[in-house]
Amino acid sequence: MNLIVEDNGPGVPKEELPKLFEPFHRPDKSRTRDTGGTGLGMAIVDRSVRACGGKSSAGKSAMGGLSVSFFLPKV
User: Fold this and answer.
1) How far apart are the first and last CA of the chain?
2) Count of CB atoms within 10 A of residue 66's CB?
3) What is the DSSP string of 3-56?
4) How many CB atoms lie within 10 A of CB 23?
């Protein structure tokens, strides 16, 4: 099963995409724990997907923002 989530927001710089699923990584350097979370959300999602035998990826959305794809194998 494939699931794709896209938005039309500002997106993520291309050089930041490979780091998006790393724990504590925040692409927007102006954000802190007080203003924008801990940087764990995408890492937790990725580890959950991998624990189910799946894969996660991120790229530029056709709408201009971010596109995150998840593949989960059929059981």
Assistant:
1) 10
2) 20
3) EEEE--SS---GGGGGGTTSTT--SSTT--HHHH--S-HHHHHHHHHHHTT-EE
4) 13
How far is CA 23 from each of CA 9, 39, 44, rounded to the nearest angstrom? 22, 6, 8
Cβ neighbours of residue 32 closer than 8 Å, sequence gap 6 or more: none
What is the model's pTM?
0.81
Instruction: Please state, in angstroms and rounded to a whole number, the distance separating the CA atoms of residues 50 and 58.
Output: 15
**2-22 pLDDT, tens digit each:** 999 999 999 999 999 999 999
CA separation, residue 19 to residues 8, 35, 53, 59, 74 (Å): 20, 20, 20, 12, 27
